[in-house]
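hey so i finaly got around to running the thing on LytR C-terminal domain-containing protein from Streptomyces chlorus. pasting the sequence first so u can double check i didnt mess up the copy paste, my clipboard has been acting weird all day
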Amino acid sequence: MGGQYQIRGDKYPRMRRPRRRGRLVVLAITSVAALGVAGWGTLQLFDVFTGGGNPASAVGVKAGCATKASPSPSPSPSAALPGPDRITVNVLNATTKSGLAKKTADELRKRGFKIGDVGNAAKEYDKKVKGTGVLLGPASALKTSLPVLGTQLADAERRTEASRKGGEIDLIIGDAFTRLTAKADADRALAALNDPKPEPTAKKSC
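ok and heres what it spat out for the 3d tokens, dont ask me to read them lol
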């Protein structure tokens, strides 16, 4: 035999396969690393689905955690709101149509309101009200008498005068006026005004 296995003397070389310890060590290290990565990934997935000790980390895990709408405590009825029989209304016509003030005053009287002056509007409003009307009163009437009268003419504009005294309020009829709000609708609006329904508030329970 030639080359490195050439026989010299009476001894023969041992023909062994090259040792593969290096490969085995690398393979072992690689296997351990792969198992470590797989284990870490499994742990992360477990944390995701269980929350990992943090209740906020798992989305949608707790079926009992929901937002529920519950009515807020009912507000006490507005004791300051007067009834129609305690409100005196001056009915004033700011249009060119005659008879509107008297006709409207008669209808308001039937609905329980007290009627004061009936006639034409003052110069500052005469033929200058383009909408259905203006409800005018002292500052104290903004959240008392004006809302109550507003149920009878829903589209009317509400105004106050700081210098105005007394409790009377004006209904100034405008160009777009045709009639008062239908009595049935006005009664419902008045009832809702005196007994407002509570607004639902959202509560989160987990």
